[in-house]
Amino acid sequence: MFKNVKQLTPFSLVLLAISFTMSISQSTMTTAYPILMKNFGVDASTVQWLTTGFMIAMTLVMPLSPWLLDNIKLKPLLNGIVAVFLVGTAVAMVTPVFSGIIIGRLLEGMAVGALFPTFQSVIMENTNQEKRGTTMGVVGLVMGSALAVGPIISGVVLQWVSWRALFILFFVILLGLLIGCQKLIQNTHELKKSQFDWLSAVTLIGFGGILYDISSLPKNGFSVQWWLILVVSLILLTFFVFRQHRLTQPFLNLTVFKYKGFLPGMLLTGISYSGLIIATVLMPLFYQRVFYLTPLWSGLLMVPAAIFLSQLNPRAGRLLNQIGLKKLVYIGTSMMIFGYLLLSIAGTTSWLIGLLAAMLLEGGNAFIMMPAITAANNALTKDLMSHGTALITTMRQVIGAASVVVASILITYFSTTKTIGTALSQTSAWFVLVPIIGLLMTSRLQNHVSKSQMNK
After folding, report:
1. What is the domain partition of the chain in residue ranges?
2. What is the share, in percent, of the chain residues with pLDDT greater than 70?
3. Which pLDDT belongs to residue 46?
4. Do you know which PROSITE patterns this protein is assigned to (predicted)?
5. Are 28 and 151 in contact (CB under 8 A)?
6. CB 104: neighbour CB atoms within 10 A?
7. How far apart are the C-alpha atoms of 250 and 271, rounded to whole Å?
8. Is 246 buried (19+), middle (13-18) or exposed (0-12) by CB count in 10 A?
9. Which among 56, 164, 48 has a CA at the least distance from the CA of 108?
10. What predicted TM-score, i.e. pTM, was given to this entire model?
């Protein structure tokens, strides 16, 4: 792993360090929910907005990242993104009211939404095609490990200090990184300035509406309001698509879908992300509700899976050039299938089984997500990579949110007539279908990528 990290430029390492620190915040708050509910007197549906709001804000900004990258020099863009995150963190850190934490989390989500596609696009653009697999394997440390590490860090911090310490920790680390790395930030992306299209920006609310509907489904069900939001969101997104085809310099260049291999690659990254995020949802429930372990131990037991993921990501990147994408995805999906089957068959027998299953679920992610992103972007021309990356990251969030909602619905449904352990096991059995879908898509992705690369 360290050998691969040394191959990256200092600027790429700066991007990775900042992205890792900011992305950890995405999954840290779930462990603090009980404490915040008690301190501020809010219920579970209200405190959930610390995560839901973060994800909606992130998803709304992601499609804007190609325009930001083409119109603002990288150094002021990166500084501005980090500044927004720091302001949000500071607001959440000092606020005396719960609404202040919500506002802070929204600002953090906007910053992360702008950063994720931007840093991936820049690294892809500045890496030769034959080295992208290895480089994006290291990037996978940020995308995968940070999500898995978040609950671990929050579990340890909350064991001894206040929840505000979580925000203080991220603020201090990120501010130090920003100040210390100014000389290393380079303006490597070629600008292609265009006028900001406010109409397109407004219609992007459709993404937020769909994500809100997905997240609110377990609580509100298929109400009239739910259907109304869905219809309005779909109308807005349909208008957005037509608008992009008419603009000479669109926010999102949707011609990326004409490149064979891009669409299945995008969907595979969502499937992979689903396995990772469901592991962070199911495993704490198994540890705490079935085996009655403390939140601290629940977090610590996620460490082996996070380490396993971090070790496999760079290796999967190297293997992409050696054995090809098809075999990598077969390995990854097989690991995920076996992980879900372990939880469904023997998940309630021992926490060691859960630990092994978590390692398989998160480890399988390493063989799918970044290799699929690399292959999808290799199918595109260089000027379309920022647009492709923005679409991939946006859809990954939507698929991830949908997976969490499906898991919540299944757990709630099964637990009405069965024990929580049985409900979690049966939910795991249903999620075996997700990596199976990935398996069915693999041969198509491999063939398309091969043809597109030959055409180049």
Report:
1. 2-194+249-455, 195-248
2. 89
3. 78
4. MFS
5. yes
6. 24
7. 28
8. exposed
9. 56
10. 0.76
